[in-house]
What does this fold into?
Amino acid sequence: MFDTGLNILSYLSQGLWTTISIFLTATVISFAIAFVAGLSRLSGNIAIRGFTAFYVEVFRGTSLIVQLFWLYYAVPMLFDINLGSNWWVGVIAVALNYGAYMSEVVRTSVVSVDKGQTEAGIALNLSRFQRMREIILPQALRLMLPEFGNYSIQILKGTALVSLIGLTDILYYGDIYRSTNLSEGPIAYLMVLVMYFIIALPLIWLSKKGEKIAKKGVAN
It folds into this structure.
C-alpha cells in the first residue's frame, strides 16, 4: 500500500503546478478585488457603493460552481466575450468569488477602527485619503490578517473545482487515476487529500501568525 501511495502521489504531481499557479494568481487578484470593493463600499458616491454592493451580493449569494460554468459557457455564448484560456477562466471565477467575500473583511475591519483615530486625523488637518493611508488602513490590516489567512486556505480548496472545466490540476489526475484503477480509487483520493493538506500547511502557519498579530489590536 505504501508503494502504491507513492506511485499515486507521483502521478498526481503532474497537476501540482496547475493547482499552485491558479491558487497564487487567484489569491493575488482576489486580495486586490477585496481592497477595491471593500473600500468602495465606504465611498461617498452612491453609484459606486450600489455597483459594488451588487457585485458582492451576487458573488456571495451564488455558488462558485455556477459562476465557473457561467464564465466558461454562458459569457462567451451570450456576450461574445472570450476570457482567454480555461486557466484564466478558472482564475477569474475563483478570484471574483473570494474577492467578494474578502471585501466584507476589508470593509468591517476599516469600520471597526476606533472613530477617535479619524477624529485625531482631522485634528491634524489630514485629508480623507491621508487619514485612510496613514492611520486607518495600517490598523485595519492587522484585523484583516487572520481572515485573509483563512480565506487563502479556502481559495486553495476552491481551486479543485477547476477540474470541472478540463484543467489538469491535482483532482483532475486523481479522477483519471481512479477511473483507470477502480480498486485503488480510495487510495487515490486519500493521496489527493494528502497533497492538498501539504500545500495548505504553510497557509495554516501564516494564518496562525496573523492571529497573533491581530491580537495586539488597534489603538483606542
Remarks:
- The CA atoms of residues 63 and 169 lie 20 Å apart.
- DSSP finds nine helices and no strands in the chain.
- The two ends are 58 Å apart (CA to CA).
